[in-house]
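Pasting as-is:
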Amino acid sequence: MKTLSDLPLSWERINCTQPHFLTIPLRTNKINWFSLAEIPESWDFKPALKEMRKISPDGIVIRGCSKEISNFLSAHQFQCIQIATEAILDLYKDHFSKKTLRLLVKRGIRHGKIKEIYYNEENFNKVLKLKRDSPHGSKPQLKYLFRTEFEAQTRCFVFENNNFNWLAAITISKINSNKYQTEMMVRSTNAPIGIMEALIHSIFYQLKQENYRFWSLGEVPFTGISGNNIKLKEKLIKYSAPLFIYAYNYKTLYAFKNKFDPEWQKIYLCGYPSITYRTLWDIFIKSNFLKLVLFPKGN
């Protein structure tokens, strides 16, 4: 039987014996949104689904699903709709061949050095301060969509300037033996041009040296929903997205990730026994997206 080594976005594999799920109850009767998860290294997605059914037999919602996982869940009576695209870097390929990108990396690296830091209270607080000092630090923060803090089981790389101040940070988590995914990307408001590009360049070659094959730069919501057979709820997501761009500029995020010439893969929201409009609204609220739309500049 074919294994499913992939995981939904921001689920990760760690050294544990039993899975741990962050479940968010939705107002729809007895349905739980399985937001984040830590899965044992030896498990694939199939036993994880069995555990979810035990926890929430009446209803399950999972977001951040790849096409492979979406197809598997569809065969198990889940309804799936596309909500985003994900930027995948193949570590065997040259994603820095563009002259403009190479110049940005070179420009950024002049301002300091990049290093991996380890989890402790001091580093946690320094990353938290960097996040608060970022251009979006005063805005309402999204929740449950990805890992929004430096955690003990994640890896963190920082850009440190010559005065030992941190200008940017990226946290990553492990999906499987071949792949890492980006969780949080944050930079100081005053970070010079090229800092993030230099940081991504350094992490790319570090993971390549460690013999990983893929690195996900993460998703861009609302993008890539196209075709002749898109569903009504997918049309709702696609055509309502521009109304929220003042609060969440997904086009700028897409342009930033696209400069690395990634492979863009479709990302799905999957729900059992269905995905209702109430489910979409609940996630809109629970993820803090509604608060971001209402207070785009903060409280």
